[in-house]
Amino acid sequence: MKICVFLSAADLDERYTGPAREFAELLGKGGHTLVWGGSESGLMKVVADGVQESGGRLVGVSVDFLAAKARTNADEMVIARDLAERKALLLEKADAVVIMVGGTGTLDEATEILELKKHGKHDKPVVLLNTAGFYDGLRQQFQRMEDEGFLPVPLTDLVFFAKDGVGALAYLEEESGLQ
User: Fold this and answer.
1) Which of 9, 12, 94, 112 has its CA 20 to 30 A from that of 103?
2) Please, what is the average pLDDT of the chain?
3) Contact indicator for 52, 58 with CB cutoff of 8 Å
């Protein structure tokens, strides 16, 4: 399965890098392909290293202004013109999406992917990997949106919240029918 992972390129604390590394090893050992932002820094590098070292493939989609930070030994690397094209290519190349910890860029990617799914522009499974409770507040906000009528479809049809990588991968394999 080709799994798009949206995540931070920042150097982060072990409470985030440890679980990310474990998830990456699960992907690689499962023979999956990581489709990611292509960066050779921070958490993006941790995950790419883990997938590659465990036998998985790497498909990167960087962006013009970050091309100098792109990983040089990915199985495939595409350089998009801008962030909008990058997001479209990442989704196009993937069978499923996992949203890991990240900043405003990751949040932008997450909300766009969910908005597209809400409008039927894709039906790929989406998992929010809630490492160390990072997305508890966002989950609460999404629940409020659903409770108060802002979501025309049930939240559970849009996204699955997973506590760990094992749960995330199990959900994706079940939902996609791909392994």
Assistant:
1) 94
2) 95
3) yes
pLDDT in tens, 32-60: 999 999 999 999 999 999 999 999 999 99
Provide the b/e sequence for 150-179 (b: ≥16 CB within 10 Å).
ebeeebeebbbbbeebeebbebbbebbeee
Instruction: Report yes or no: 135 and 128 within 8 Å, Cβ to Cβ.
Output: yes
State the residue for tokens 């999956």. 32
Q: Which residues contact 93 (CB under 8 A, 6 or more apart)?
A: 2, 4, 35, 59, 61
Distance CA 31, CA 147 (A): 39
pTM for this prediction: 0.94
Quote the crossing angle between the two packed helices 42-53 and 14-29, to the nearest 10°: 30
Is-contact 96 32, C-beta < 8 A?
no
SS3 of residue 139 by DSSP: helix
Q: Token digits for 64?
A: 């013009």
- DSSP state letters, 70-122: B-SS-SEEEEESSHHHHHHHHHHT-SEEEE-S-SHHHHHHHHHHHHHHHTTS-
Query: pLDDT by residue (tens digit) across 18-30?
Result: 999 999 999 999 9
Are the C-beta atoms of residues 127 and 168 closer than 8 Å to each other?
A: yes
